[in-house]
Amino acid sequence: MRTLPVKSSDHGSYIFSLLGKNLAELYEKYGEKLLQQNIRVSEGNKPANKSIEQTCTGSDSANFFHYNNGVTFLCESARSDDFTNTIILDKAQIVNGGQTIRVLHKAYSEKQLKDDVLVLVRVISSSGHKDFANNVAVNLNNQTTIDPSFLKSNDPRILQLYHSIFSLGWYLERREDEVSQLPKEEIELLEKQLGQPLDTRVIPLKEGAQSYVAIFLGELELAKKNPQRIFQERQGGGVFERIFDDKLTAEKFINSYRIRSAVQNFIDEFGKLKRKKSKMSNWQIEYAKLLGDDLIPSQNDLLHQVIPQSSLFLCALIYWKHVDLNSKPINELIEQLETNFDIQIKSLKDIVEFSRIKPEKISKAWPWLLKSQDFFDNVKEHLKEIH
Predict the structure, then answer these.
(1) Domain boundaries, the chain
(2) Which of 11, 22, 35, 331 has a 20 to 30 Å separation from 170 between CA atoms?
(3) Which of 20, 4, 199 minimizes the C-alpha distance to 107?
(4) CA distance 186 to 54
(5) How many degrees, rounded to 5, is the angle at CA 231 between CA 338 and CA 262?
(6) Whole-angstrom Cα distance, residue 260 to residue 210?
(7) Neighbours of 119 (CB within 10 A)
(8) Which residues pair with residue 5 across a beta bridge?
(9) Exposed e or buried b per residue across 8-45, where buried means at least 16 C-beta atoms within 10 angstroms of its C-beta
């Protein structure tokens, strides 16, 4: 293995080639631990991965080096020993090329990987500079479309929030679907540390942030209509620095997600009824079991328009009404929300009643209204007047 050292700015890099077999064996030994700083999780059997697999197992395998972008390692320090033909990396992570190494390992484990597969490898040393390391991870993955929340998954503020949330018995899923791809042993270790089944204690980063913005900040339109701005920097038109500031605590993040989950459970129950409606001999009775007699059947069409789209709107309205307006302790509110659907239904009635009393405010379709800041503020103002 002949390495080419490159010095740029204050950071050093090495470029070299490595047999696909060697990379597959590295993944065999360390698994997903190599990819904790990689923004992208496994994309499964998508076309790009199929193409990688076809090349590394097919008749054109000798050209893999030319067809594939390779793998990039980020480490705190690196040193090359030409005498032993080795390179030693300290605290190495793969920040680009995660799909490639996963596919190589799959082919290797199935004994399909060709011996002549050669892979371009780049090693970047951060010299212990965390901001630089984060910028490397973001920029290497910013050349193709990717959710902004993924790009921020390794930001120091997100990592600090992750550890704070974990200390309270919850797991912040910083990258979409990462929990589903954790090996069994790691899940068992996490559950032992949390003292809870992992699947009941996971907060997806994007959903948690949307919940916090809607509930604690009352910025419904940002949370519902423009969630990508939550994870974008100020210079890019985003509000990341303002949202993830000192006011955002692990407790608030957890509580906002618990409120959203309780509201979503109510919406999911309605969704089950809606899907079965055509097969019900008397759907009004079944709807009334969930929603009560007040909303059935005259408001049926309205409910079908409102409820499926109302999750964040109801969350924000419930918190504002009960905590901000009526000073209910948030722990008491969450306990009630998780026990039954009474509060969710009452807030739904508030929306329906507002539409009846103020029909002039219902000038657009419900999907638009339920992500409108003006409409949210109008409903709040109405409730304040009758309080």
Answers:
(1) 4-140, 148-386
(2) 35
(3) 20
(4) 31
(5) 5
(6) 10
(7) 24
(8) 14
(9) eeeebbbbbebbbbebbebbeeebbebbebbbbbbeee
pLDDT tens track for 184-241: 888 999 999 999 999 999 999 999 999 999 999 999 999 999 899 999 888 878 999 9
Residue 245 CB: number of other CB atoms within 10 A?
Answer: 9
Q: Report the SS3 class of residue 337.
A: helix
Which amino acid type is present at position 22? Answer: N
Residue with tokens 């600090």, as numbered in its chain:
160
318's tokens: 């419930």
Q: Which two tokens stand for residue 292?
A: 């009560």
Q: Are 203 and 164 in contact (CB under 8 A)?
A: no
Count the residues in the chain.
Answer: 387
Q: What is the pLDDT of residues 92-138, one digit of tens each?
A: 888 888 889 999 999 999 999 999 999 999 999 888 787 777 777 76
Are 14 and 3 contacting, i.e. CB atoms less than 8 angstroms apart?
yes
Long-range CB contact pairs, 303-309, < 8 A, 24+? 303/270, 303/348, 303/352, 304/274, 305/365, 305/366, 305/367, 306/348, 306/351, 306/352, 306/366, 306/370, 307/267, 307/270, 307/348, 308/267, 308/270, 308/271, 308/274, 309/366, 309/367, 309/370, 309/371
Can you name the residues that pair with 7 across neighbouring β-strands? 12
